[in-house]
Write a structure and sequence with these properties.
It is built from one helix and eight strands, in the order αββββββββ. By secondary structure, it is mainly beta. The chain has a single domain, classed as Porin, CATH 2.40.160.20. The chain has an eight-stranded antiparallel beta barrel with strand order 1-2-3-4-5-6-7-8. β6 and β7 form a beta hairpin.
């Protein structure tokens, strides 16, 4: 009996080993790769176009008037107006992790006008007569540095630098609110500074759109206006501020804007 039991145990062991040998080898699979949100590479050259609106305010301070006018010397008055702008921009970005540094230049043609009756005129003109202060902005330009923070396909940024404006300053005389006697017009290019901020969103590979606000300040410039009809000259210190809101479209040349993983 012992010999029979031993033989049965050996046989069962051999059958188990044979069945184990016939089983397929165990396979191992890699864990699925976690999907990542597309990241944006803002580095490289870009070019684009923009359109928007602008609001200007010019403050004139009376320095001298011959013959004298009713408003005392040193009196200040402001004229404001608005209009449209449109133009283009070009720039270059460097991206370091999520920080984006860049330089940008833009130029905009403008049709922005303001006018106001600012200083009262002495007799022999009737009461209610004024000297007028007018400005037409012809173009605006900036040269700025930018710093921004990027996440996903979005970028928020601030910018600052130099601003340039070409405009026509014109004086005039209004009598009783109906008659206007023109004086000479001064065309000048002014230099100032600008600060701004914006938001930019990438889409379709190399493209991005943006919305931006800019404030521009152009220091004080002394100008004299001669009125032939009154045989007189009015001298003003003129300071102009311009506010711009614009939307734009950019195209980058440094490979796909949206990186692929």
């Amino acid at each position: 009996m012992r010999k029979l039991g031993f033989a049965v145990a050996v046989g069962l062991s051999a059958i188990g080993s044979a069945q184990a040998a016939d089983l397929p080898a165990r396979t191992y699979t890699k864990a699925p790769v976690a999907m990542m949100d597309p990241a944006t590479n803002w580095s490289g050259f870009y070019i684009g176009a923009h359109i928007g609106g602008a609001w200007s305010e010019t403050t004139g301070t009376l320095v001298d008037a011959t013959p004298p006018i009713a408003s005392p010397l040193g009196t200040s008055a402001s004229a404001s107006g608005s209009g449209v702008i449109g133009g283009g921009q070009v720039g270059y970005n460097w991206q370091m992790a999520q920080w984006v540094f860049g330089i940008e230049g833009d130029i905009s043609g403008a049709d922005v006008k303001n006018n106001n009756r600012v200083f009262a005129v002495l007799p022999p003109y009737p009461p209610g007569s004024f000297t007028d202060q007018n400005l037409r902005v012809n173009f605006l330009a900036t040269a700025t540095g930018r710093i921004g923070y990027a996440w996903g396909q979005s970028l928020v940024y601030a910018k600052g630098g130099a601003a340039f404006m070409n405009g026509d300053y014109t004086g005039g005389q209004t009598v009783l609110g109906v008659g206007v006697f023109p004086v000479n017009s001064l065309s000048t290019t002014r230099t100032g500074w600008t600060l701004g901020a914006g938001f930019e969103q990438a889409f379709m590979g190399n493209w991005s759109w943006k919305i931006e606000y800019d404030f521009m300040h152009f220091g004080t410039d002394r100008d004299s206006f001669f009125a032939p009809t009154a045989n007189g000259t009015t001298t003003l210190d003129l300071s102009t501020d311009v506010h711009v809101v614009k939307v734009g479209l950019n195209y980058r040349f440094n490979g796909p804007l949206v990186a692929k993983y």
